[in-house]
Input
Amino acid sequence: MRFKNRITEMLGVEYPIVQAPMGWIARAQLASAVSNAGGLGIIETSSGELDAVREEIGKMRQLTTKPFGVNIAQAFVRDPNIVQFVIDQGVKFVTTSAGDPTKYCRALKEAGLTVFHVVPTLKAALKAVEAGVDGLVVEGAEGGGFKNPQPVSTMVLLPLVREKTNVPIIAAGGITDGRTMAAAFALGAEGVQMGTRMVSAAESPVHQNWKNAIVAAEETDTVFLNQFSRPALRALKTQKTARLERELVPNYQGPPVMAEFARAKDLYFGGDMEASIALSGQVAGRIDSVKPVKQIIRETVDEFFATVGGLAATYA
Amino acid sequence: MRFKNRITEMLGVEYPIVQAPMGWIARAQLASAVSNAGGLGIIETSSGELDAVREEIGKMRQLTTKPFGVNIAQAFVRDPNIVQFVIDQGVKFVTTSAGDPTKYCRALKEAGLTVFHVVPTLKAALKAVEAGVDGLVVEGAEGGGFKNPQPVSTMVLLPLVREKTNVPIIAAGGITDGRTMAAAFALGAEGVQMGTRMVSAAESPVHQNWKNAIVAAEETDTVFLNQFSRPALRALKTQKTARLERELVPNYQGPPVMAEFARAKDLYFGGDMEASIALSGQVAGRIDSVKPVKQIIRETVDEFFATVGGLAATYA
Output
């Protein structure tokens, strides 16, 4: 059983399974495990720590001979040289997100990179296609992280974008196994991206407390914060985020939500779950154990083919 | 191409496509069109107008010889005789919703009815199975109408409930065509329920202004209201609901959201979109025209088989 579609061809991977570019987390230890398992690891730049990112990309070349990508989270990387920085690293695949798709697309394409833009709405998708992207990451609002303040779920957004565009789509938001991967493919995707599943992986560098919180979470244990401002975000419910959910409403007068990330590393790597915000998708409620990346990808692929085969046997 | 699974067997229908039980709307004109097209029409009781409902069930027997069902929306029908009322109508299939599944399940089952309970969380699903229901309607938060205040999308909730229970599942929330039906089946459903798609149908009794508003809506044009109280609900964005979205936050002091339904009929049948709240799912953004029910169901079935066939050809 193997995959052969536009995403595997463009990315040069065995399996069209991409790891999401979580700030500070999507670095060589995790990303190389994903690439070595046949998926596509992605290195983040949203931490803004470009020196560290350069070092991580260097480590990737030691840890894997397989393809990997870089993400440019436009709203979070203010360095005007980010495009040249990415080009200089010699990677072939980049996702751009959280910003205007016309801003970097041409320069990246002219340098020979394959460019996918992350979109939370049809309007954003059409704008990205117009800008000349090679493909889209279509991100439903059940996913974790920074979100459009007008949330639309994968079940609605993905087929809508599929109907109105022709470029290959990587589905994000709610994807955590082979069943959800098969559903995303039924909706028109040719690849999937996993965030929370990878945060919880054995090779993820986050503190065990965060992984344990994902494993313990029910499907109702995320909050959607700051919907009346920007950026909105989805995170695990903690004492802090439950309080913020009730405070970040119209006429809120306190400090901006981004101030909560000042102590992000105390949560991410120190394990103090109340120090900051643990970005996470609703799939936390479906994750019952910490697994190595290789196992996650193998089980996903096996279940994908079993699901498609089962549907075909019953209904085709 | 035909369907044969637990849902078609239990419901006695050709296609496992169920019409949602929208208050005032899910009456004989719409429900008979669904049943005659091979799906399952459902008559509502959430309007509380049991005399009218009795008359509608009488009309159903004139308009169709096919099976149909009744919904008991427990939070909205306070009549203690509702169970006997439903049994007396001679229907064989009932969905219960918005309440404790143990309350009516035994009496309905003892009277020979097939009982499905509508659930928005895994916890509710497990409780319903424990109560002895025959199956579940698993309802993702992208759907319209009254919702759990802790929203979980279909892509997350449906496979979670599938993994943890064995009863047949009808998927609701985000389902509007064959692609989404195939995705729901990949996630473990054996049937689907459509609400907004049926509100927009030619045979739907709502005013043309509401249908036009669904056709005009983008996928971001719904609001999720009253999340910090009960009942939460999803509706089309209008001047009224955009205002309510910003008002119905913690420490809200105004009249309860249900007071907005005092003039529901002026919206539903009079076409004054600001008179009340037009309950609607995110799929409004995917609906581009008013179609007869028969066409909706035929296109859904054709696209379902085409989608499954396409997946099988590429990946099985």
Observations:
- The mean pLDDT of chain A is 96.
- Chain A has two domains: 6-205, 208-284.
- The longest strand of chain A covers residues 68-73.
- Chain A touches chain B through 56 residues (CB under 8 Å).
